[in-house]
Specification:
heterodimer, A: about 400 residues, alpha/beta, Rossmann fold, seven-stranded mixed β-sheet, 13 helices, 16 strands, about 20% strand, B: about 300 residues, eight-stranded mixed β-sheet, two-stranded antiparallel ribbon, about 35% helix, globular
Chain lengths: ~400, ~300
């Protein structure tokens, strides 16, 4: 059923259709409408779940950890500082192999305080052992949640669905919302593997000395790599069941003929596609490689898609301060050493703290890399606000 | 079979917290954890904070727990227990005893917020604090439960502040049951655990659990030190039921605090050549205030 709906409420709607047993969250802009939506659904008796209003994101993550360890399907959502406050628990959830689903309404990190969108928050926990999926629009944000529970519960890996704050969470778009029966048919009942239950006493969360710790990290790393198959399978099952493509590993747009390829993820790919269409009319061949699954990183797919492309530009809404583009280094790493030579992989950071990324900004970027590769550049920087003495 | 001494009459001994763990000899916390598990029985889930208890009882692959055990972090035992409670309600499972447990650091300091949240939300969880008055697992650093005058590795000249009053802070959340106990009185401790578990909602039991290593006393004095803590008035024994202090343990013969302080290395600096310093008077004053406040 196609419905004109705010992104957050669409997500709340489909998360409720996934029938989580326990929902726990702490309010933070721009995540709030998602949990308000869920609170309404639970309050109206449309979802039989425990909704636990906690005193911090740290406790929200801890509550879903405990609930999942006790056999519940558990869900939480957060943003920005909330992700950072949760980060200790986020690592723990992955290490304990608890299939929790978390929505990250992507937002910038303090200081300075900014409630607006970029992707620094989820990128700050990219190495925690979670699957990270990035939504392009609200349809995909909704669809990814249905897939996320299935992926998590098949792999026993937690899944973070990342959707750009405000740009998606607060945008009204037509979204095809599924029927409850469709979701029930797609998503089986959660069958936990290890739970705390007096009928089968066992310890969960024991400590590991140097004889055992490293293997736990190896197993988690391999499990994430192996989750590639599940992510792809679930995505194609979803396409079959719901009649539309959503999620998966990567997506491309006018890539085959392209002379220049833009690599990016999240909602900005919409603007990039518009630019690609404009440039096509002007006779320029530009394509898009969209990363949907950032963790596990689709190294093979990226290589396969880009192996014949000599001019690549990576655009991202996050930065490794003192180093540069994060996604850019992942893309550079995707090529075997011998093939990196003579290949131009430019790196641009844009849209930090909600700075708008206009189609003109993107045009400037593409035209610049057409002339020469760019090692690293802030796109849309206001140089008039910067003094040499501050740096 | 050896005849059970009168002292152990009515004490549950099920070995749900098994021997073979790695606690030091005379560890008050190990003794307390065992009494708690055995009083609670098999139908119990232990949510344990990082700390001595977790480290000496839950190394992979040899945990001591014969009841389900869940550990994740230092400061979130109460929140994790809240999640277990929510799951049991949502899945319509149970009833089950959910006992969150932690030391004084994870209770009074780093985990204070999550405990406050668990109390305030009204989860059906018993929180047990094993109070050994410092961060023992990391090498005896000061916590906000470290008593006035005590030497720790981060208060080398003696702690200058008074101990945070956690039972009162717990009670002020409006929770139905709060109690204090020590490891010298097995029966009383287990009675309070069993009683707490019959009450719906959040409960808090504060157990004084001496640490021979951190307190600097021989391991065989653990029980005696607890008796002295009670009989000096430094550790009052009481319950708070629905906000009212009740069942206060009367001190049979009041003992000067010096008797409690002297056997402990952490207070040794307060007695230069056997002469009590001014701090001893200040500690006596704390005991006197307790005696007056609780009519001990």
């Amino acid at each position: 059923m196609l419905k004109q709906i705010e992104g957050s409420y669409a997500v709340a709607h489909v998360v409720a259709q996934c029938r989580p047993n326990v929902i726990s969250a702490y309010p933070i802009t721009p995540q709030t409408h998602i949990v308000e939506g869920l609170a309404d659904i639970v309050g109206a008796g449309q979802l039989d779940a425990e909704f636990v209003n906690v005193e911090s994101e740290f406790s929200a993550a801890s509550v879903v950890l405990g609930a999942s360890a006790a056999g519940a399907r558990a869900y939480t959502a957060t943003s920005s500082q909330g992700v950072l406050l949760m980060s200790e628990v986020i690592y723990c959830i992955a290490g304990m192999r608890l299939p929790i689903v978390l929505t990250c309404a992507n937002r910038a990190i303090s200081a300075p305080l900014s409630i607006w969108n970029d992707q620094q928050d989820s990128m700050a926990v990219r190495d925690a052992g979670w699957i990270q999926l990035y939504a392009e629009d609200n349809q995909e944000a909704s669809d990814l949640h249905i897939q996320a529970f299935k992926i998590a519960e098949q792999t026993f890996l937690p899944v973070m669905v990342c959707m750009d704050g405000f740009i998606l969470t607060h945008a009204y778009e037509p979204v095809d919302l599924p029927e409850q029966k469709e979701v029930d048919d797609f998503l089986p009942t959660f069958k936990p593997r290890h739970i705390v239950d007096p009928r089968w006493p066992r310890g969960i969360g024991l400590f590991a000395d140097p004889r055992f710790y490293m293997e736990t990290r190896y197993i988690l790393h391999r499990a994430l790599e192996k989750s590639e198959e599940t992510i792809k399978e679930v995505s194609s099952e979803f396409a079959k069941a719901f009649g539309r493509e959503s999620g998966g590993f990567i997506k491309t747009y006018k890539l085959e003929e392209a002379d220049v390829v833009v690599v990016s993820m999240g909602s900005v790919v919409g603007t990039i596609k518009d630019l690609i269409d404009q440039l096509e009319e002007e006779g320029k061949k530009v394509g898009l490689l969209q990363i949907c699954s950032y963790r596990p990183f689709p190294r093979k797919e990226v290589y396969r898609a880009l192996k014949d492309k000599m001019n690549i530009v990576v655009l991202e809404k996050c930065i490794s301060l003192g180093r540069g583009g994060i996604l850019a280094s992942d893309v550079r790493w995707s090529f075997p050493r011998a093939e990196k030579k003579d290949r131009d992989i430019s790196s641009f950071v844009a849209g930090l703290g909600g700075r708008n990324i206009s189609i003109d900004d993107l045009r400037y970027m593409v035209e610049k890399v057409e002339k020469e590769p760019v090692e690293f550049e802030f796109l849309g920087l206001k140089t008039e606000l910067i003094a040499e003495r501050d740096m | 079979m050896r005849e059970q001494s009168k002292y152990l009459e009515g004490v549950d001994k099920k070995d749900l917290f098994a021997s073979g763990h790695r606690a030091c000899g005379g560890c008050g916390q190990a003794l307390a954890a065992r009494l708690v598990a055995d009083a609670a029985g098999e139908n119990t889930i232990a949510c344990v904070a990082t700390g001595c208890l977790e480290v000496f009882s839950a190394p992979y692959p040899d945990p001591s727990w014969r009841i389900p055990f869940l550990h994740s972090l230092f400061e979130n035992a109460a929140a994790v227990a809240s999640g277990v409670d929510a799951a049991y309600k949502a899945l319509k499972k149970g009833p089950v005893n959910i006992i969150a447990q932690g030391g004084d650091g994870s209770t009074a300091d780093i985990g204070f917020q999550s405990i406050s949240g668990m109390f305030e939300r009204g989860h059906n969880v018993l929180y047990v604090c094993y109070d050994n008055e410092a961060y023992m697992n990391t090498g005896v650093q000061r916590s906000s439960f470290t008593p006035y005058g005590a030497r720790t590795s981060t208060t080398p000249t003696g702690n200058t502040t008074r101990k945070k009053n956690m039972p009162m802070l717990a009670a002020d959340h409006g929770i139905p049951y709060v109690a204090t106990a020590t490891v010298d009185d097995f029966r009383d401790l287990q009675l309070k655990i069993r009683k707490a578990l019959t009450i719906e909602g959040p409960k808090y039991i504060h157990i004084l659990a001496p640490c021979p290593l951190g307190w600097g006393h021989p391991g065989d004095l653990t029980v005696e030190i607890c008796r002295l803590a009670k009989d000096t008035g430094l550790f009052p024994i009481y319950e708070i039921i629905d906000g009212k202090v009740t069942n206060v343990r009367k001190i049979p013969v009041k003992v000067p605090v010096a008797e409690y302080l002297k056997p402990q290395g952490r207070f040794k600096h307060l007695f230069k050549r056997g002469v009590p310093s001014e701090e001893v008077d200040a500690i006596q004053e704390i005991a006197n205030q307790n005696i007056e406040r609780f009519n001990l």
